[in-house]
Design goal:
The chain is an alpha+beta fold. It has helices spanning 18-30, 72-81, 105-113; strands at 4-12, 43-44, 47-48, 60-68, 90-96, 103-104. The chain has a single domain, classed as Alpha-Beta Plaits, CATH 3.30.70. Helix content is 27%, strand content 26%. It has a 4-stranded antiparallel sheet with strand order 4-1-5-6. The protein has a two-stranded antiparallel ribbon with strand order 2-3. A hairpin with a 6-residue loop joins β5 (90-96) and β6. The chain is globular, with a radius of gyration of 15 Å.
Length: 119
């Protein structure tokens, strides 16, 4: 039986998406995920590779995923260990199976810990 978790990972445009390629995608592979995250909007050889509406390319890095039996708590904990420039500018929106909307799962983790992202 399947249990799907939909994930939208949003990273500020000033963050290097190298963390996704070199750290997050290998983590996914280690946890049995066949396909890595790839940006849904950006540039490739000076040409926009957008999957978004509008006449501009998004100025943030957005990654989409749909996972079966995903270890979400482990993934969120892993994201928090990465050396982000501005941790508060990294968001992970999650919609678990049978939920009707996405929630910012990293904000929930940070709220539980009592992180003060306002400085």
């Amino acid at each position: 039986m399947s249990h799907v978790t939909n994930v939208i990972l949003c990273i500020d445009g000033y963050e290097d998406d190298e963390l996704v390629r070199e750290r997050i995608n290998p983590w996914l592979a280690e946890h049995g995920e066949a396909r890595p995250f790839a940006p849904v909007s950006g540039w490739d050889d000076d040409e926009p590779t957008a999957y978004t509406a509008g006449s501009k390319v998004m100025e943030s890095n957005v990654f989409l995923g749909a996972f079966n039996h995903f270890p979400l708590d482990d993934f969120l904990a892993f994201l928090e260990t990465l050396p982000w420039r501005e941790r508060e500018c990294v968001q992970c929106f999650v919609q678990d199976q049978h939920e009707r909307r996405f929630t910012d799962a990293l904000a929930d983790v940070r709220d539980v810990r009592g992180d003060d992202t306002d400085g």
